[in-house]
Amino acid sequence: MLMIGMYWQEVQLFKEETLAKGGPAALNINGGPASLLVTFPNPNQSLGYLFFIEFFVDSFIGIVIWACLDPANPFVAPTSAPFAIGLAYANMVWGFAGISISTNMARDLGCRIVAAIFFGGGAFSYMHYSWISILVNVPATIFATGYYEFLMRDSLQQIGKGHALHEGGEEGLKRHITNTGIMETGATGVLQGSGSGSDEYAMGKREMV
Predict the structure, then answer these.
(1) More confident of the two residues 83 and 208
(2) DSSP letters along the chain, please?
């Protein structure tokens, strides 16, 4: 709404020119006035193609976010997590924005409602694309969370709590801690079962969130 208010004269001129050239249907297409606010697919893109692009992009971002929030991840500190997440978003925008992505419901739904107010219901009905931009991020994020939890999460935290054992025993656990570069305080805490180092690291990430 703020953007529409700031550029109202230019938007109105753009709208009038578009109506004169292509009629009301041209308002809600890629390159039309409504595309100032939301994503519209190209005419030659199928819904299946658009679905898989959106699903991959949202899953990638979800995995990166979950990795940054994992207290057992020694490669991302609380201070560097925002940069890592921002770089993940930037990579997806650079790689896929030109072929239609939304990345999340919060970014798309409100703007699409504003587009519908000023340019008509085509903002939701054009090529039946809106359900992809609004909803696909939900199952994609669930998939990303499950994928990370079951296949990528380091089990060190569970070992420290006594819920699991390292397959190489205590010697294997020591080798793992040495290879991943975890601080001595964290390593000692995990091996003794206190988890003090990992708890401090987790607390830092919780405060960041």
Answers:
(1) 83
(2) -HHHHHTHHHHHHHHHHHHHHH-GGGGGSTTSGGGGTS----TT--HHHHHHHHHHHHHHHHHHHHHHH-TT-TT--TTTHHHHHHHHHHHHHHHHGGG-----HHHHHHHHHHHHHHH-THHHHGGG-HHHHHHTHHHHHHHHHHHIIIIIS-THHHHHTTS---TTHHHHHHHHHHHHT--HHHHHHHHHT--HHHHHHHHHHHHH-
Report pLDDT for 163.
Answer: 52
- φ, ψ of residue 136 to 5 degrees: the values are -65, -30
Distance CA(186)–CA(25), nearest Å, equals: 61
Sign (positive/negative) of CA torsion 2, 8, 10, 130? positive
CB under 8 Å to 172, separation ≥6 — which residues?
166
Owner of token pair 């699409």: 112
Mean of pLDDT over the chain: 83
Tokens for 112, please give them: 């699409």
pTM over 0.90: no
Q: Could you give the count of Cα atoms lying within 13 Å of 203 in the half-sphere of its Cβ?
A: 7
Identify which has the larger pLDDT, 36 or 189. 36
Residues 107-121: tens digit of each pLDDT? 899 999 999 999 999
Q: Which among 54, 48, 52, 18 is positioned nearest to 34, based on CA atoms?
A: 18
Residues 6+ apart with CB under 8 A from 59: 140, 141, 143, 144, 147
